[in-house]
Amino acid sequence: MNPIIVAVICGALGLVLAGFMARYVLKQDQGSEKIREISAAIKEGALAFLGREYRILAIFVVVVGIILGVIPMLGWWVTLSFVFGAVCSGLAGFIGMNMAIRSNSRTAAAAQKSLNDGLRVSFRGGTVMGMCVVGIGILGLSVMYFAFHNSLDFLKIIPGFGFGASSVAIFARIGGGIYTKAADTGADLVGKVEKGIPEDDPRNAAVIADFVGDNVGDVAGMGADLFESYVDSIIATMALCMMAYTATMVNPLVPNTETAYFLPMMVAAGGIIASIIGVFLVRVGEKPEMGALLNALRRGTFSASILAAIFAFLAVYFLNADIGIFWAILAGLVAGVLIGESTNYFTSYAYSPTRRISQSSQTGAATTIVSGFANGLMSTFPPVILVAIAILVAYKFAGMYGVAIAGIGMLSTLGITDATDAYGPVADNAGGIVEMSGLPPEIRERTDALDSLGNTTAATGKGFAIGSAALTALALMLAYSQAVGIKPDVISLLDSRVFAGVFIGAMLPAVFCAMTLNAVSKTSFTIINEVRRQFREIKGLMEGTARPEYGKCVDICTGAALKAMIIPSLMTIIAPIIIGLILGPLALAGFLLGAIACGFIIAITFANAGGSWDNAKKWIEKGHLGGKGSDAHKAGVVGDTVGDPMKDTSGPSLNIMIKLMSIVSLVLAPVLIGFPGLL
Predict the structure, then answer these.
(1) How far apart, in Å, do the first and last CA atoms of the chain sit?
(2) Residue 145 and residue 158: Cα distance in Å, rounded?
(3) CA of 234: how far to CAs of 9, 45, 77, 323, 409, in Å?
(4) Based on the number of CB atoms within 10 Å of its own CB, is 629 exposed (0-12), middle (13-18) or buried (19 or more)?
(5) pLDDT 10s digits, 56-67
(6) Which of helix, strand or coil describes residue 196?
(7) How far is it, in rounded angstroms, from Cα 485 to Cα 507?
(8) Is 543 helix (H, G, I), strand (E, B) or coil?
(9) Which terminus of the chain has a lower count of CB atoms within 10 Å, N or C?
(10) CA gap 96, 73 in Å, rounded
(11) Whole-angstrom Cα distance, residue 201 to residue 224?
(12) Cα–Cα distance, 150 to 207 (Å, whole number)
């Protein structure tokens, strides 16, 4: 049997499981009339935002597709591949978010029965996202194989699929991230700090916009992010190996060009089966303790990782590939698991780093921010060392191909990893719905436990996404260097063009973060003033006898986010084109190296600092150091709002940025071969 058929079957099984989980969730009770009303408002806002965002993306995809088609060295088949990748990425994000906005009310209703029921509904809602990402990803790449694998231009056509996926991801991540964090910041600062009212209080005009943002940013945005990581890692691995047969690389370690496509697809297919099994191992008791909840998810993810390693070995064995490739896959898989554990340590309030931030909140917001940022910087140590070790081990056993396939090893359990990530926003929304609908405190205690776990799993997902982004971007950069004919011993940091490229590349993530942070700041400013206005002008609002104008905050966030996402997204696409055309292919290789290294460090720092600030606040809210309403709590809220755009907008967007610039360079490679640059 053709191994691609096996991959198709596994991808289809992933989608079947997604359908089964969706059917289970949709059969659950939606709760009281009040719960349904709140959920309907969230659904309306999320779908409206995504609809407007996708209309903008459709224009972008058409324009870029035409440009790719008219370039003689690329052509219309590249355009078709680009459009197909964009459609697949958008579809995965839409299905996942569509399920999430239908799971929140059902999770709130299920939490009234038991903690385990709440976890089951929310996790299964998140599983739809995870399985759609891997299922659509592997099926999309299988379609590309059957359509183009006999074409002489296959290596030129296939990167277009990744370019399309990455383009959708960058817009979805930035737009959704700006939306969610502007609303969250406005709601928290006015509600908790100025007015002293609970989180998700129905009197706060920004709470519905906050709930909507959780879905468009943390579900649709993260889904698109991990989708493009998934497909880009496979594309990079396949491209690197197939280039071996054009005499650009010695000892490719695989027996034929067919295996170059089969092996990464089979490893990914095995990961889907492992994730499906892991999903059914997630269950918890009735104590709302972080340790028990974490162990429930760890049981699923660890089991999936062990099974994925076994399936990877079988794929290497049956395809008669060099055993060294298995060790490269295992290096990536182990690094991914350990990065997740490292992220848990630095961001969960079950451990000392986050509790130290809570303690520092007793002396004000300044010390909260300083200690949280220091924690984010310190947290870079384990992931960087782990990725460096994975690269060295993978290269030792399988050369550059090993570095690429190590990224697939890290992403092989994406089905369950993304499920644990997408679960978080569902649980967060459920907790807010419980608060707004006035359910008893013990129900809120259960949803708070689920929400706190969601903060940790979201941070773990971001750490996982960042680590995989570094390996994937590096593999794409290596594929680019091979495609333009750059030999490993040709790139020298003493070359002035390479040196200039490294510096410009290292600078770009900082500029990118500045643009996205400023966008959140400006939008938050508008939201804060709108919430203040409503408290000031709507009579009876503070007393609970009047209803706030939720729609105005939703409209403000939607318009501002869609406008602000365009420039940083376009900058990411245009920058490598300008560097390649002006300074040439060598400078572009240096540019990518600088961007990957700097982007990796900043992304980890932002994600873990933001995650630890968030959970430090939650540790105080659990009754420690004065509890809710205390000065320490107010300082913790300030730290949380500072960290929000870092962990949910700028940091995760960097993952896509470094991969998108690398895939753009690979697509551009046929144009740059032999081109010295304009300067």
Answers:
(1) 52
(2) 9
(3) 17, 35, 19, 19, 10
(4) middle
(5) 999 999 999 999
(6) coil
(7) 26
(8) coil
(9) N
(10) 36
(11) 31
(12) 53
